[in-house]
Design brief:
Helix content: 55-70%
Shape: elongated
Largest sheet: none
Distance between the termini: 55 Å
Structural class: mainly alpha
Number of helices: 7
């Protein structure tokens, strides 16, 4: 049997729910609760999850971890396109302050997540989004 080209989001969620339930000795009824509890796990516990899921999904632990951070958790964060103009203004503000470009994504992310503390954003997604904004030659001062 050949290896599937992509990881099924449904299977991933089911397998992760099982793993986190075993670790925490707790039953979870929604994937959001699994996601929230997973954020609280120690690194050693997370690494064990990646290892166990990699066997179930026929992937490497790194591929499982990448899928989690790059795909699966996006369902729990707001769409950043809604905040595009605001993020652009933050980028421009830091550029006007002559902040080095290599530091801008981090600073925008810090300021933005502080401003919206009540919303759980995917920080990695914000960083990528800001870097894409900065690569766009059409942003203006």
């Amino acid at each position: 049997m050949g290896r599937a080209s992509t990881i099924s989001t449904v299977h991933f969620g089911e397998f992760l729910t099982h793993e986190v339930s075993v670790i925490c000795n707790q039953i979870f009824y929604t994937e959001y609760h699994v996601y929230s509890k997973f954020q609280e796990l120690h690194n050693v516990q997370r690494q064990q999850c990646w290892k166990n899921l990699s066997v179930l999904l026929n992937r490497t632990p790194q591929q499982v971890k990448d899928f989690y951070y790059n795909s699966w958790i996006k369902q729990f964060s707001p769409n950043l396109n809604i905040y595009k103009d605001e993020l652009l203004l933050l980028v421009l503000d830091f550029l006007h302050q002559n902040v080095e470009q290599k530091d801008i994504a981090r600073l925008v992310c810090e300021k933005f997540t502080h401003r919206y503390q009540h919303i759980q954003f995917n920080v990695k997604a914000i960083n990528i989004f800001v870097r894409k904004i900065m690569l766009n030659p059409n942003y203006t001062f």
